[in-house]
Automatic annotation (TrEMBL):
Keyword vocabulary terms for this entry: Oxidoreductase
Protein name (record): Short-chain type dehydrogenase/reductase
Classification via SMART domains: PKS_KR
Keyword Oxidoreductase annotated: yes
Length: 324
């Protein structure tokens, strides 16, 4: 008996990295899986239809159920085909993992319009497109009287949540948008019995993070637990996918074996001018009561975890090298 017996899942970007491990793990837990991946380069260019097929073949060879799909999630009708593939091949859809993502970084004055559009198209619009078509199917099923737990699992990044990084305008904005959509969709789809949550992987060794400073190498001892392996995310995804999981509307960061619930933006102090409108002069005085943080100090604190102690001068120098 697996925790996902009888469930049908779509995993986008499942040909490599985190998505591949999620697809394999879900199948190992009994789910039938649509392995979606056009097999593109890390920046979204090119394509290789064998990438999704290989993962689907591996799952089937191991005794599981899987089919491959090579549509791009950024393509509106392609996203519809991804969802339709699950229903056609396996008769239903219970779990959607929006995992596909690409990266094309650059500091603001150097980031091209195309790089912005492409990253947002895959991560933000792709999550919307797949979820839109899944929600359309879920709504039809609900109207026809079918009742089942269904689960959408989005994928964000610390870059768009707690750890914004220079050179990631497009990636951070798209990932923050995915976290925001998660809450909206949890509210909207809860009335149909659909739970919507979000995972935020951290420091997972894939081709997207190959150049991240401080990324540990794989353990030398064969079989030793590797806390940075893409497989560490899969059990958390399977937990969120299971019919008896109570969570909805949550964003969980996963780093090695640590699973942290995110609280999102939270309000700090309030200043008010009472019944009178503000003036700039009065604001200049009253605003001193607000506790403000220095973004370079925040970045130094977050980078110190991976790179060792850093001060704001070092961080400013690192950023300047990208911007000036
Ligand atoms: N690796 C990390 O530490 C980390 C950290 C935070 C967030 N993430 C997120 O996790 C997800 C997976 O990243 P990864 O590190 O496994 O990267 P990866 O490059 O190894 O895998 C991503 C897969 O998505 C596929 N893909 C790209 N564009 C697609 C499209 N338009 N439609 C369908 N599939 C597409 C790629 O072909 C690739 O196989 C991404 O959304 C990424 O932003 C990863």
């Amino acid at each position: 008996m697996g925790s996902l017996d009888g469930r049908v899942a779509v995993v986008t970007g499942a040909g490599r990295g985190i998505g591949r491990e999620e697809a394999r793990y879900l199948a190992g837990q009994g789910a039938a899986v649509v392995v979606n991946d056009p097999g593109v380069a890390p920046d979204g260019g090119g394509g290789d239809s064998s990438v999704a097929r290989q993962v689907a073949d591996e799952i089937v060879a191991a005794g599981g159920r899987a089919v491959a799909n090579t549509d791009s999630v950024a393509d509106w009708s392609g996203a519809a085909r991804v969802v339709a593939t699950a229903v056609r091949a396996f008769g239903d859809l219970h779990v959607v993992i929006n995992n596909a993502g690409i990266e094309r970084g650059g500091a603001l004055g150097r980031l091209s319009e195309a790089a912005f559009d492409d990253v947002v198209a895959v991560k933000l619009k792709g999550t919307f497109a797949i979820s839109h078509w899944a929600a359309t199917y879920f709504r039809e099923q609900h109207a026809a009287g079918a009742r089942a737990d269904r689960s959408i699992i989005n994928t964000a990044s610390g870059s768009g949540l707690l750890n914004p990084l220079p050179t990631q305008t497009n990636y951070a904005a798209a990932n923050a948008g995915v976290a925001a959509m998660t809450t909206v969709h949890a509210l909207e789809l809860g009335v149909l019995g659909v739970r919507v949550n979000c995972l935020s992987p951290s420091m997972i060794r894939t081709r997207l993070t190959a150049a991240v400073p401080g990324m540990p190498t794989a353990p030398a001892t064969p079989g030793a637990f590797d806390p940075n392996h893409p497989a560490v995310i899969a059990p958390v995804a399977a937990y969120l996918a299971a019919a008896d999981c109570p969570l909805t509307g949550q964003v969980l960061s996963v780093r090695a074996t640590a699973v942290t619930i995110n609280r999102g933006w939270s309000a700090g102090e309030t200043i008010s001018s009472g019944a009178e409108p503000w003036t700039v002069d009065r604001l200049a005085i009253a605003a001193r009561e607000l506790t403000v943080t220095d973004p370079y100090e925040d970045l130094a604190a977050s980078l110190s975890g991976a790179l060792g102690p850093m001060d704001t001068a070092q961080v400013r120098a690192l950023v300047a090298a990208q911007v000036v």
